[in-house]
Automatic annotation (TrEMBL):
Domain (Ferritin/DPS): residue spans on this chain: 7-143
Gene3D superfamilies, per database record: 1.20.1260.10
Taxonomy, superkingdom: Bacteria
Name used for this protein in its record: DNA starvation/stationary phase protection protein
InterPro entries membership: DPS_DNA-bd (IPR002177), DPS_DNA-bd_CS (IPR023188), Ferritin-like (IPR012347), Ferritin-like_SF (IPR009078), Ferritin_DPS_dom (IPR008331)
Signal peptide: none
Family: Belongs to the Dps family.
């Protein structure tokens, strides 16, 4: 497996962890913003589901093997699962933290794909970064 495939697998794992984490927040968020945050976390896990699949299928297209077990995801992921103790502020901060973390990792991953002249993977990662950065901005406004 080349460095780009390894890198993309880490992000597949991160999106898998986020999928469960965002469901956790969707189910357990409490308080006066319940309806907004419940819906926002659902919107985010729906989007994460799409990029999770897109990144995994991109690995297959370039001849690699995508991580496809929960155990494998937890081993490869660079973000943490939910603790179950988060307040709604903690939840928002945690999503901002994870999105920023993945955004920075993708910035590095883009360089790997550029070295291989894999412009389609560069495009996938750039599009994903644009979306993550939009959510980071909106969620950060919510905390002010
Ligand atoms: Fe639901």
């Amino acid at each position: 497996m080349n460095k780009l495939e390894q890198f993309l697998n880490k992000e597949v794992a991160n999106f898998a962890v986020l999928y469960t984490k965002l469901h956790n927040f969707h189910w357990y968020v409490k308080g006066p913003l319940f309806f907004q945050l419940h819906a926002k976390f659902e919107e985010l896990y729906d989007e994460v589901t799409e990029v999770y699949d897109a990144f995994a299928e991109r690995i297959l297209m370039i001849g690699g093997k995508s991580v496809a077990t929960l155990k494998g995801n937890l081993e490869l992921a660079s973000i943490a699962e939910a603790t179950g103790l988060e307040t709604k502020e903690d939840m928002i901060k945690s999503v901002i933290h994870d999105f920023k973390h993945i955004d920075l990792e993708l910035k590095e991953g883009i360089k790997l794909a550029e070295d291989l002249e894999d412009d389609v993977t560069v495009d996938l990662m750039t599009t994903t970064r644009a979306s993550l950065q939009k959510h980071i901005w909106m969620l950060s406004e919510l905390l002010k």
